């Protein structure tokens, strides 16, 4: 009797794990980055202290590029 119960529970767990939806691999891409930009005629907010600005203005953000990750061997 107990082996049948254990086999039934094992089969139930196996089916539950196999029916689970697969995780999608979402790797970030450089073009997915949203950076605030300047437009002619837009007011530039002046902030004193620590505040949150809804739409900050940015003149330059830096070099957006992808850099490959290189791992060196395990030499000692």
TrEMBL record:
The organism's place on the tree of life at top rank: Bacteria
The protein's name in its UniProt record: Uncharacterized protein
């Amino acid at each position: 009797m107990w082996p049948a119960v254990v086999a039934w529970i094992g089969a139930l767990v196996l089916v539950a794990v196999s029916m689970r939806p697969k995780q999608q691999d979402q790797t970030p891409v450089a073009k997915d980055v949203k950076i605030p930009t300047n437009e002619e005629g837009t007011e530039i907010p002046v902030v004193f202290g620590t505040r949150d600005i809804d739409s900050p203005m940015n003149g330059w953000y830096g070099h957006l590029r992808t850099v490959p990750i290189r791992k060196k061997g395990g030499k000692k």
